[in-house]
Each structure stands twice: as C-alpha cells, then as structure tokens.
C-alpha cells in the first residue's frame, strides 16, 4: 500500500477535531492519506455525490440543528455510494456504535481514544473489507445471473423444504411463476409423494443426490427429469437448505425408447423381432417355473414357396406381402399373444396361458384358414400358405432355445408332410419323439458328413455255393449313437423325403463298389439295391440310375433293384412306365419280401421281374411248419414256370437249406452263409473263393433276358 493515495473526507463541525485528525494522518507512513474536510451535512452530501473519496469519516454530532452522522450515513448509502464509512463518536454516545454498524458503517472510532496507528488500521481494514464485500457481491450477481440464464431448472429450498429459489427455466417448464411457489413445499413439484419423501430425505441425509425423478407440472402433466441435488451451506459451513438442478429428459427418454424399440422390432412389419420374442419367452418360462398353473404354446410359422413369390413379383412386392401377412397374423391372435418376425418368411407366435391342446391347434387352423383368402398386391391376386410347427407345452422346457428348436423341427415336419398344414410337437408325448426328431435333424446332415456306410450281404448259388451277388444294406454310423440299422432310419428318411438323397447315394456307392470288384476280376458279381416306395414313385429314378451306371462304368446287368411286393402293389399305374424305362436300360428287377401279405403272383406275370426273393418270415418256418414249406415250394415252382429265379432270404439252419435244395431253389442268403459285412471283408471273401474258380459262369441276372 506504500505509495497508495487514499482520499479521505472528514465531516466534522469542530475545527479542532479536524486539526487533530490532520495531525494523526500526517503520522501515517504506510500509505498516503489526502484529507478533505467539510463542516456541514449539505456540504458533505455535495462532496459525496462527486464520489472522489475512498473513505468517509463522519462525526456523529454535526452541530446544533444539524442531522446526525448516522443520518448522513443512511443517505450516503442510499445514493449508492460504495466507499466505507467510519463513524466518529464521543465518549458518551451510548449505543451509537452498534447502531452505526447495523446501518452499514464499516467501523466506529471514539474520539479521544484515537491514535494514528488505530486510525490507519481502521481505515485500511474498512477498505479491504469493502473490497471483499464487493467481490462477494459481484460473485453473487454472477451466480444469480447463472441461475437466471441457466437452461436447466434450478430450484432451491430451505431446510424446511420451502422453496426459496425458482429460476426462469423452472418457471417455464413447471408452468408456475416464481411468486406462486416461493415459500411452498418443494414436494409439490414431485409426481409421486413416496418418491418425493425418499428423495428429499436422501438429500438431507446423504447431502447429495442424483437420479431420474418424475416431476409434475402445474397443469398436472408429468415429465421425467434428471435431478442433481445437494445441500446448501453458508459461509460458516452451516447447512441452510438444498438446491437441485433439474433437466427435462423427455426427449432423451424418447430417443432411448426409440433405440430400444428398434433393437426389438422388425423394421419392415413392426412386429417384435427374434430378440424380443426370446426375451418374452424366457420371462414366460421363468414365470412358469414359479407358477404351476401357467402354460403357453409356441408356434413356428414358415411361408410355403415364398421365394417363388419374391422372385416373380420382385422384392418390393415381397415386402408388401410380408407386411400384409404380418397384419393378418396379428388379427388371428389375442392382444396378449406375441407374433414376431424372425426374418425372411419366418414368424414365431407365443400363445400365453394356453391350457389345452385345442387352443394352439385352433389358432394354427385359423391362421391357415385366413391365409386361404388371396392377398391383392399391385393388382395381382396372390395365395400364400404356411407350414406351422407347434410346441404345445412350452412350460415343460428348461431353455427357450429348445422350445424354438422343437417348434422349428415340427414345422419342417409339416413342410415334409406336404406344406399348408401344422404339426404338433409335445415333449410330454415321448422322450422317444425327441429322439426321433433329433435323429431327423441329424439325418439331414448324415450324407454330407459321410456318416452313411453300406454293408454287403452275399447271395450264394445253391448249385455251386459261389457268391453270385451282394445285397447293399445301408447303415448309419451315428457319431453319438453308434451304428443305426436301416429299419430305424429308413422310415424316417422316407417321412422327411431325405430318402431321395439317401437312396441316390446308396445306388451311386454300390455301383462304384461293384465296378471296383469287377475291375479286381470278380466280374460275375451283381450288386442289388433296395428301393423304397417313395423313391420308386419318382419319375426321374430310371434316369438317375442310368446316369450313375454310365458314370461308374458298371455294366447295367451287374446291377439289380430290389422292390418289395407292397411297393409294386401301391405304385399301380406308374410302376408300368418305370418298369418299361428300366427294362429299356436293361436294369434287372427283383421282387423283394415276397410272400408276406399280398402274394400277388399275378403281378409277377405282368411285370418284368427277373428274380423274386422269398421273405425270411416264410423261410424261417419251413423246417418246422408244413404249411410254410408247402407255400415256399409252390412259390418256387410257379416262379420257375414264369422263368423267374428264386432267392431264399434269411436262411439260418442247415435244415432250411436242405429243404430249399430239394425244392430246387436257385439262391440263398442268410446268416447260415454270411452276415452283412463291409466292402473290404467282401473283397477278401471273394479273393479266397477265387482260389477255387468255377468254370460255370453263374450270374443271377444274366440267365434271364427281359423280353
Ligand atoms: P430286407 O431287404 O428284407 O433286407 C434283409 C434284412 O435281413 C437285412 O437287415 C439283413 O441284415 C437281414 N438278414 C440277412 N440275413 C438274415 C438272417 O439269416 N436272419 C435274419 N433274421 N435276418 C437276416 P437290415 O440290413 O437291417 O435291413 C433291413 C431293411 O432295411 C431291409 O430289409 C431293407 O428293406 C431296408 N434297407 C436296407 N438298405 C436299404 C437301402 O439302401 N435303401 C432302402 N430303401 N432300404 C434299405
Ligand atoms: Ca432286400
Ligand atoms: Ca426281406
């Protein structure tokens, strides 16, 4: 402060006092005092208005009939003067000191007790204090400005929770004027009374709070806000209230909702997507575990031939169609049910509380029925159908994925059974059914995973005991279940139409294997392949066989098809055409499993069979049952008159063999001779028998020439 000039105005009616003051000031060395002096109130006011002074010293007594120094003090402050004022009192001016301070004086000094150092200190402190006050005031102005201009709502309250501050943003959002809410409880701004209690208690207790709170406007409308609140303290660190900053998060929540919606819905149809479906399914499943009575079903729906529609009408129309279908599906359901689009033309439906068989079936039927009405799209009438798989008792499962897997599997089954229908999966029905369906799924991949193998069972000539043919018997080397016999999976393959692939593979493999044996020098071996009814009913079968034979280089007469009697009976008209085709290609045909059921010797007359195989159920009886042996004998005789060779299947005992020999049966097959075995074993078998070559070329097929 050393060189600082400080201008002081002394207002005192007594010149002696002025002189004393001047003396005292002259002793001050820490700063440079410049003292002015006026005697009267009016002269003082005139000077004060010019604002030239840094400090005022007012004598309390300003002479007879004059105002007091305190009155001058009041008026000085009223003019807006910010400079510190020090009151000088006499020794007897009781209580003036306190009053002076209350009215805004910075200090008071008692005349007669003043020395220069006291005066210096008093003035210096007064100036410093004033500066500090100014700083605080401007800071206060600044924070008030911030509060007023803040885009966030700012609300403060005292410890009694009465509102003390309510900024313009708060006014705008809540719809209250500041004056309406000042002094009222802050709780009026909360949407929920419980929440208001909890939150305010928390702020008071923990001194700080932040979180999402619903607020209520004057209109009653509720809006979500983010509140950060804390305790307010005064300079002495005493708690005086709470202040909260609020931000309206309606828009933010809307955006979040939108994002969430997008994550859980299919954008094309607006239906729930797989995620949402799985979530609901999981919730239902959990609920079902706690609640015995809850039940639900899941339908998995796949449109039939949708790809054709899509390809022929274009993707845009395909999309429109999906939207229409989504609408129709919705209309078939109750509000509480969920229909979701899994992408493509797949939909899944969740039926809550379906307690009996009827409901899920009923919904499926209604959907299929509704879909029968054609859709009109860009002037075209389009009919779509769907295949639906149903899991009736979803609540019996442990995992949502398993329910969907089974619904998907039975949907596939519905497709295989001819589309536009539903099929039901019910885990209660059977663990076996689960097995079956799992097997069905596995079977779809068996070929590509090279799990199928062919065993070959030799057929021997009864005249020479030589192996003349081998029957191909397919097996499935399942990675978990081991070797599965055809009786277990061929019916499955037939039901799912996998039989086409399986059958084609067997023919291909058997022909290639036989060609290999021929190349090794066993050129009189015929390979036979069993053909199922469904395979046989395919018009393209002869062509397929032709291609395989050509590609493998096997001669057509070293290959023979085994067709069961029942297949022949059930194929009726078609069979003749196929037989003609096969005949043209010189493919030989064997009637398999002869003698069970149909006994249609008649068909043998009309169809170009070269061989017939008597079923093992008849053969197994011949040495014990005279009827059976008589039948077998007559079959052999009759076949011979038709120039058809006979194979006895399932020969297990020497007695059976003896009888068959006596009946002039041509060939035999059975455990008495050989079991079905792998190709390598057949190869070594053939190698052994070659050591005793027979000149008589015997071939079950070559002896017969189709007419
Ligand atoms: P199948 O045509 O009657 O075939 C003969 C079945 O009897 C074979 O069973 C064979 O292992 C068995 N067998 C052979 N000798 C004896 C014997 O002395 N005693 C007894 N008890 N059984 C004997 P496998 O291999 O289990 O085949 C069962 C059926 O599966 C076959 O009956 C055939 O209809 C079908 N199958 C086999 N492979 C194929 C194939 O590639 N395609 C089609 N469509 N069906 C096939
Ligand atoms: Ca057979
Ligand atoms: Ca048989």
Automatic annotation (TrEMBL):
One of its GO terms (biological process) is phosphorelay signal transduction system. Keywords: Phosphoprotein. Residues 436-690 form the EAL domain. It comes from the Bacteria. Signal peptide: none annotated. The modification 4-aspartylphosphate is found at residue 59. Pfam families: EAL, GGDEF, PAS_9, Response_reg. This is Diguanylate cyclase/phosphodiesterase. GO terms for molecular function: catalytic activity. Residues 209-261 form the PAC domain. Residues 294-427 form the GGDEF domain. Residues 160-211 form the PAS domain. InterPro entries: Biofilm_reg_signaling (IPR052155), CheY-like_superfamily (IPR011006), EAL_dom (IPR001633), EAL_sf (IPR035919), GGDEF_dom (IPR000160), Nucleotide_cyclase (IPR029787), PAC (IPR001610), PAS (IPR000014). SMART domains: EAL, GGDEF, PAC, PAS, REC. Residues 7-126 form the Response regulatory domain. NCBIfam families: GGDEF, sensory_box. The keyword Phosphoprotein applies.
């Amino acid at each position: 402060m050393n060189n600082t000039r400080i201008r002081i105005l002394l207002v005192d009616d007594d010149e002696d006092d002025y002189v004393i003051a001047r003396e005292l000031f002259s002793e001050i060395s820490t700063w440079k005092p410049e003292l002015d002096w006026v005697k009267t109130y009016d002269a003082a006011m005139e000077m004060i208005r010019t604002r030239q002074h840094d400090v005022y010293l007012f004598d309390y007594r300003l002479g007879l009939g004059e105002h007091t120094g305190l009155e001058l003090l009041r008026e000085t402050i009223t003019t807006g003067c910010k400079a510190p004022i020090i009151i000088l009192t006499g020794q007897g001016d009781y209580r003036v000191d306190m009053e002076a301070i209350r009215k805004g004086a910075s200090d008071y000094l008692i005349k007669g007790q003043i020395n220069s150092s006291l005066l210096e200190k008093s003035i210096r402190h007064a100036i410093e204090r004033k500066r500090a006050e100014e700083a605080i005031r401007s800071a206060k102005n600044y924070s008030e400005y911030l509060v007023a201009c803040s885009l966030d709502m700012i609300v403060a309250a005292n410890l009694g929770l009465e509102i003390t501050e309510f900024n313009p943003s708060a006014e705008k959002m809540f719809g209250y004027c500041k004056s309406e809410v000042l002094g009222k409880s802050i709780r009026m701004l909360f949407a929920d009374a419980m929440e208001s209690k909890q939150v305010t208690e928390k702020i008071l207790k923990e001194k700080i709070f932040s979180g999402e709170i619903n607020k209520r406007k004057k209109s009653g409308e509720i809006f979500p806000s983010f509140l950060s609140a804390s305790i307010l303290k005064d300079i002495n660190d005493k708690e005086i209230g709470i202040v909260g900053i609020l931000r309206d998060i309606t828009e933010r929540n809307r955006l979040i909702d939108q994002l969430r919606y997008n994550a859980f819905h299919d954008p094309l149809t607006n239906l729930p997507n797989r995620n949402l479906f799985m979530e609901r399914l999981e919730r239902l499943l959990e609920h079902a575990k706690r609640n015995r009575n809850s039940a639900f079903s899941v339908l998995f729906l796949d449109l039939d031939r949708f790809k054709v529609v899509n390809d022929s009408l274009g993707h845009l129309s395909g999309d429109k169609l999906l939207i229409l279908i989504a609408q129709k599906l919705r209309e078939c359901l109750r509000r509480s049910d969920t229909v979701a689009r899994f992408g493509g033309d797949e939909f899944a439906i969740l039926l809550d509380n379906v307690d009996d068989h009827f409901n899920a079936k009923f919904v499926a039927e209604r959907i299929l029925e509704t879909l029968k009405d054609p859709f009109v799209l860009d002037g075209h009438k389009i009919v779509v159908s769907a295949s639906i798989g149903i899991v009736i008792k979803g609540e019996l499962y442990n995992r949502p994925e398993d329910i969907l897997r089974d619904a998907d599997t039975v949907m596939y089954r519905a497709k295989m059974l001819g589309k536009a229908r539903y099929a039901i999966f019910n885990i209660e029905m059977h663990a076996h059914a689960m097995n079956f369906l799992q097997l069905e799924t596995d079977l779809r991949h068996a070929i590509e995973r090279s799990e199928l193998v062919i065993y070959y069972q030799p057929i021997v000539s009864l005249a020479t005991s030589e192996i003349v043919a081998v029957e191909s018997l397919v097996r499935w080397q399942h990675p978990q279940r081991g070797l599965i016999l055809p009786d277990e999976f061929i019916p499955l393959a037939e039901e799912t139409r996998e039989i086409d692939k399986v059958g084609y593979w067997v023919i291909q493999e058997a022909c290639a294997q036989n060609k290999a044996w021929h190349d090794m020098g066993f050129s009189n071996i015929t390979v036979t392949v069993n053909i199922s009814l469904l395979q046989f009913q395919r018009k393209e079968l002869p062509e397929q066989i032709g291609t395989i034979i050509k590609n493998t280089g096997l001669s057509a007469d070293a290959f023979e098809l085994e067709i069961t009697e029942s297949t022949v009976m059930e194929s009726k008209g078609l069979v003749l055409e196929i037989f003609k085709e096969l005949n043209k290609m010189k493919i030989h045909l064997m009637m398999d499993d002869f003698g069970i059921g149909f006994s249609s010797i008649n068909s043998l007359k009309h169809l170009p069979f070269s061989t017939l195989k008597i079923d093992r159920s008849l053969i197994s009886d011949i040495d014990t049952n005279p009827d059976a042996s008589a039948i077998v004998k007559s079959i052999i005789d009759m076949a011979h008159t038709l120039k058809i060779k006979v194979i006895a299947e399932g020969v297990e005992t020497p007695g059976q063999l003896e009888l068959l020999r006596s009946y002039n049966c041509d060939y035999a097959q059975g455990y008495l001779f050989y079991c079905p075995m792998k190709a390598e074993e057949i190869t070594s078998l053939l190698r052994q028998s070659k050591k005793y070559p027979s000149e008589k070329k015997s071939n079950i097929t070559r002896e017969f020439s189709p007419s």
